[in-house]
Amino acid sequence: MKPLKKIALVGCPNSGKSSLFNALTGLNQKVGNFPGVTVDRKVGKMKTENEDFSLIDLPGCYSLYSRSEDERITRDVLLNPENPSFPDLVIVVADFGNLRRSLSLAGQILDLKLPTLLVLNMADLIEPEHANNIQTRLKKKLPCSIVNTSVLNNKGIETLIKEIPIALKTKPNPELFFSIPPTFEEQLKNQKPYPNRYAAWLTWLISNKENEALIGNELAVRFDLAGDWIEEEPEPLSSNFSQKIDQVLLHPFWGYFIFLAVLLLVFQAIFAWAAIPMEGIDYLFSSVGEGLKKWLPYGFLTGLLIDGLWAGIGGILVFIPQIAFLFLFIAVLEETGYMSRVVFLMDRIVRPFGFSGRAVIPLIGGMACAVPSIMMARNIPDKRERLITILVTPLMSCSARIPVFTLIIALIIPAQSIAGFLNLQGLVLLGLYLLGFFAALGVAWILKRFISGESNSLFLTELPIYRLPRVRNVALTIFNKCKTFVVETGKIILVISSLLWLLSTTGPTGEIKRVEADFAAKKSEQNLSQIELEALSMKEASAKLQVSWAGQLGSFIEPAIRPLGFDWKIGISLITSFAAREVFVGTMATLYATEAGDESYASLRKQMQAETFSDNQKPVYSFATGMALLIFYAFAMQCMSTIAVVKRETASWYWALFLTTYLTVLAWVSAFITFQVLSAWS
Amino acid sequence: MSKSLLHFSKGEKGKIIQTQNESLRIALLGMGIGKNTLFQISNIAPLGGPIGVLILGTKIAIRREDASKIEAEPIA
Q1: What is the dihedral of CA A578, A360, B29, A191, to 10 degrees?
Q2: Does the beta carbon of A68 lie under 8 angstroms from any beta carbon of chain B?
Q3: Percent helix, strand and coil across chain B, each rounded to 5?
């Protein structure tokens, strides 16, 4: 089959480019990465009357000279005919809200001699007659098809589609709009051949930092030229409305108050509301798994299938509600234009830590779950800031730490009140949250010094006019994010979870079999009551886990964790809870042969309290060990899904491993200090 | 009399004269702010935060240290 002709969408951010992409392709779109970088590459299929096209949404840019990673991609694609995304037609999306800058960009594209279709979007911002006059004037001056649209109201899209075959045939102007200074022709001769002179000039300019003044001059010329093309500046109508909203949302007091309320709502959604479908998914997967086990023959393959793979898939899908909820809010906040206001409000406050305001929502989201929050960091334009955000978000205390924290706190902190109304256990929990928060800021502050990258001291952010969110755009964002997570991140999670299952169910030759035979003999004894049988089954599970590879590994690492006050049973739980932190509690329950489902883990707590070290007979769960364990879980990278999502979002194993290493070291050292200081002091 | 953008108060209107910093000039031109562009200061974030500058229908947030490098002339 002949490959489809390619059409690229190019335009300034906030020009309605992505909405147009969604309108033209609908569900016929795929999101991937541009090779080697983590910038979304959105490709879709669109139809015209006689032909199908492949439509690619290039990252928004203000000019072809922009320096951010996203914007560089647009330039690279348009300059290089060998690039797999090089288009047969460019659709430049300009908007009536700021026509001059859009037309400066269009001028650059036209000078590249690419067949061009100019879309004047947001026609609803000005009087229809006025919009038509501008279009007529531009048609006289520009060698391309021009269409007025209002994507928001689905207007002009049919006309646009009809114009595509015509636009493909338009001949570019022989002359450049911007005349390259003749003195530079010499320099350009040494360049490898480019499709045309402007491409050669552009490539030469960006190759040298000293050319900044020339770039500035060219853009100034284009800016004036665009002014001449329009002959007048259109007056947008609705800016007054946005102005009034901004007087409240950017207010020095109410602005922050409302932002706090928005944060609270987002947090509530991913923390509490998402819990309901998550429990549903959990229940569904475990009950179907249990049901299947009864039907399938008992054995290794069934175990791998149900407890390894099936449980692994459940472990992936359980993240969907949180991802969906977070991106619902993110998409709405981006679509309405509020997200840029957050940047405006927060920039000064978070800047000392290397963040701009855009990092605030992923960081707060990390208090519910790091996985969707790390995915959200993609919206941060600055590459270095994005990386730092990804690397510190796992420090924020997520919801999976709560079961571990509550179990240990209940074990070592007396349930008493301070000053009559403050619950001591609650205070410790609050302290752990604050610890995670300040650790994230501190680590960001340090990383800022060590991670290189152009520090983008320039801070210009557009605060676009407020718009109602479009359901289609929001729905597509949520759908695409969930799909990406399941497909891309899911693979890694599945491999690790199967591996962990193997570790905890298999062991050195014969060991597991020996335990099974032992218990089979005990169970076959006469006159055992149902309760006694159940107790035996739990003891069997405990014994099996202890002799499994995970159990062996737990004992093996005991010397390394003994200085933290941990015994080998904690060691086993550390290994199994690498899958997810909350697994710690389940593993402990198995090891102590108690029921995990027990409300508030009362029987598990009793068993743990009675536990002593085998060598010195001192209780394991002293105050010092408990505190060390809490601190360890506050920092340690005990979550395979986070590692998988970091690998995907940084496109490298390097950063995923760096994250795991630094968190483990941080956890070990802090727990070591905590245990040593507290045991010396008590 | 021209002065730096930083010294404009909320609601004040003006006209851009120039900026000495080339990367800032490039970034501003990309956003649609060039010589003689008319603007109005519409918001100022507290505690030394950015300044919201209204140009036509678009609003651009500019950090204070960048605003201090932009020269502009007040207009009535």
Answers
A1: -10
A2: no
A3: 20, 40, 35
In chain A, positions 85-124, which contact chain B (CB-CB < 8 Å)?
96-98, 100-101, 104
Q: What is the pLDDT of residues A621-665, one digit of tens each?
A: 899 999 999 999 999 999 989 999 999 899 889 999 999 999 999
Instruction: Give how far B9 is from chain A: nearest CA, Å.
Output: 15
Q: Is the dihedral of CA A468, A472, A475, A479 positive or negative?
A: negative
pLDDT at A58: 93
CA–CA distances in Å: residue A505 to residues A118, A499, A594, A639: 63, 10, 18, 20
Q: What is the SS3 assignment for A4?
A: coil
- Cβ of A462 within 8 Å of Cβ of B61? The answer is yes
Phi/psi of residue A207, each to 5°? Answer: -75, -10
- Distant-in-sequence, close-in-space partners of A529: CB < 8 Å, separation ≥ 6: none
Q: Measuring CA to CA, which residue among A272, A323, A279, A315 is closest to residue A479?
A: A323
Q: Which residues pair with A44 in a beta bridge?
A: A29, A55
Tokens encoding A227:
């002014």
Contacts of A463 in chain B (CB under 8 A): 52, 58-61
**Chain B residue nearest residue A103, CA to CA:** B32
Of A101, A239, A252, the CB nearest to B31: A101
Instruction: Give the minimum alpha-carbon distance from A203 to chain B in angstroms, rounded to a whole number.
Output: 17
* DSSP letter string, A145-187: EEEE-BGGGTBSHHHHHHHHHHHHHPPPPSS-SSPPPGGGHHH
Q: Is the pLDDT of residue A237 over 60?
A: no
Pairwise pLDDT comparison (A509 vs A469), residue with the higher score: A469
Instruction: Give the tens place of pLDDT for each residue, A338-385.
Output: 988 998 999 888 888 888 777 888 888 888 889 989 988 887 878 888
Average pLDDT, chain A: 86
> For position A238, what pLDDT does the model report?
47
- Among A7-21, A408-422, A450-464, the least confident range: A450-464
Considering CB atoms only, which of B29, B52, B58 is closest to A344? B52
| Chain A residues with beta carbon closer than 8 angstroms to that of B40 | none
| DSSP-based three-state secondary structure for A6 | strand
Query: Measured between alpha carbons, how far is A252 from A195 in angstroms, rounded to an integer?
Result: 52
In this prediction the pTM is: 0.81
Q: Is the pLDDT of residue A227 over 90?
A: no
d(CA A92, CA A103): 9
Say whether residue A463 is in contact with chain B using an 8 A CB cutoff.
yes
User: How close is the nearest chain B Cα to the Cα of A182, in Å?
Assistant: 22
CB of B55 within 8 Å of any CB in chain A? yes
With an 8 Å Cβ cutoff, is B40 touching chain A? Answer: no
The string of DSSP letters for B27-52 reads HHHHTT--TT-EEEEEEE-TTT--EE
Would an 8 Å CB–CB cutoff place B42 in contact with chain A?
yes
**In the numeric block, which tokens belong to residue A557?**
């690492």
- Residue A632: the pLDDT is 96
CB contact under 8 A, B34 and A223: yes
Q: Which chain B residue is nearest to residue A100, measuring alpha carbons?
A: B32
Predicted confidence band of residue A193 (pLDDT cuts 50, 70, 90): low
The predicted-structure confidence for A423-438, as pLDDT tens digits, reads as follows 888 888 889 999 999 9
Q: Which residue has the tokens 């695409």?
A: A480
What is the rounded CA–CA span in Å between residue A601 and residue B14?
A: 68
Q: What is the pLDDT of residues A665-678, one digit of tens each?
A: 999 999 999 999 99
ipTM of the complex: 0.94
pLDDT of residue A406: 84
